[in-house]
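for the recovery benchmark. tokens below, seq after
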């Protein structure tokens, strides 16, 4: 992640859908962190997580969806992180447009997302069966999004994307993508 720091060596990270701050432990020391999440009730857990991650400089917590990052200035962050978020946003393309808007030129969008399975697989069949109930139970989460296609359509100069299979037994969420895209 540090390869995307500005010339002075400072790194500004925006995490979309930060939740309770689970990813903070993986961020490099001394980076400046901006957190966004549409759920204002995460603030208390997030404050606890911030206290446990003294290696970071926390800038702000913004209550906002990924589709509306208007409180973050254009070309102001070096890295945007999204972990298991794009499955439940209303508009994946809208989020990616906002990611590109807030990223500095040469900045990176890191992602880990569960996605739709191969259409000829049993997993895909189960994703179709479970999808309506899954969305209802898990706050709009869709197990059938082809998120890689939306990332590939966005105006990134470089994309490193890998399809992986996560061993989550008895769920329709085994197919994932992991990688980064450079603006």
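predicted aa per position
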């Amino acid at each position: 992640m540090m390869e995307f720091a500005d010339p002075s060596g400072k790194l500004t990270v925006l995490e979309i859908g930060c939740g309770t701050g689970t990813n903070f432990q993986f961020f490099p020391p001394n980076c400046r962190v901006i957190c966004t999440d549409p759920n204002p009730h995460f603030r208390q857990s997030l404050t606890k997580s911030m206290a446990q991650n003294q290696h970071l400089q926390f800038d702000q917590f913004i209550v906002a969806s990924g589709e509306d990052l208007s409180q973050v200035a254009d070309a102001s962050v070096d890295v945007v992180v999204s972990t298991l978020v794009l499955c439940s946003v209303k508009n994946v393309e809208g989020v990616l447009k906002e990611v590109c808007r807030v990223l500095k030129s040469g900045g990176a969008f890191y992602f880990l997302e569960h996605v739709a399975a191969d259409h000829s697989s049993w997993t895909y069949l189960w994703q179709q069966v479970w999808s309506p109930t899954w969305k209802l139970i898990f706050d709009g989460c869709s197990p059938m999004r082809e998120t890689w296609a939306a990332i590939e359509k966005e105006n990134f100069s470089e994309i490193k994307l890998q399809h992986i299979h996560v061993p989550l037994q008895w769920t329709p969420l085994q197919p994932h993508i992991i990688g980064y895209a450079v603006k």
